[in-house]
Amino acid sequence: MIRPVFEPESLPVESTGADLPKVADGLLTPDGLRARFEQRLPWDPEPQESRVTDIRDPREAAVLIPLAIRSSGLSVLLTQRADNLSNHAGQVSFPGGSREPSDPTPIAAALREAHEEVDLDPARVEVLGALPDYLTGTGFRVTPVVGLVHEPFSLAADSLEVASIFEVPLSFLMNPANHEIRVFRWEGGERRFFAMPYPQQGMQAGAVGTSHFIWGATAGMLRNFYRFLLA
């Protein structure tokens, strides 16, 4: 079935997670995250659509969820992908990409891709662990690798792949009140997805492009991160 093109930002919000429990503040710290990844608590990832789980032989990929240690708290480094890319063009994404034969592990792939895309020195990343693999509608099985990024570090976007780099407080992304479920309905069916719009600093309310629109696989992996921390 050919699925129609749609503008995710224009779709209505069906619900939010405002009634869900919040993550304890102590977990949103370097020490809290280190302790959580050392535990083996049972938890369930967010269910994925059957259209995704039915994909045969997905390509292996990895992304880095880079958590910058700032004086104001942890923040997530995200990228706006270049418009010329064949997959997820123009979307908000974590640094990452396909796993190459030279990558011994998904962690190695995530660190290599982050270095290539945003010039993040792997030596500045303290890898904490990985979340469950995430299947995308474009045929990738993505391993989300979580790591603390220690200062000092510098970033520089690879203009062929990355249009811009920005940061979002981890506390914002782990607050379920900011987790929207949007739905797209068409004659052949419907699709629901998570979205977490983050207001851009310095933009007037109501102006075009007032938020970084985090949605799709990136929002789905962040939602799994929330569920992991909530366990």
UniProtKB/TrEMBL annotation:
Keyword RNA-binding among UniProt keywords: no
Keywords: Hydrolase, Magnesium, Manganese, Metal-binding
GO MF annotations, alphabetized: coenzyme A diphosphatase activity; metal ion binding
Region ranges (Disordered): 1-25
Source taxon at top rank: Bacteria
InterPro entries assigned to the protein according to its UniProt record, in alphabetical order: CoAse, NUDIX_hydrolase-like_dom_sf, NUDIX_hydrolase_dom
Domain Nudix hydrolase positions: 58-189
Name this polypeptide is given: NUDIX domain-containing protein
Source organism (scientific name): Paraburkholderia eburnea
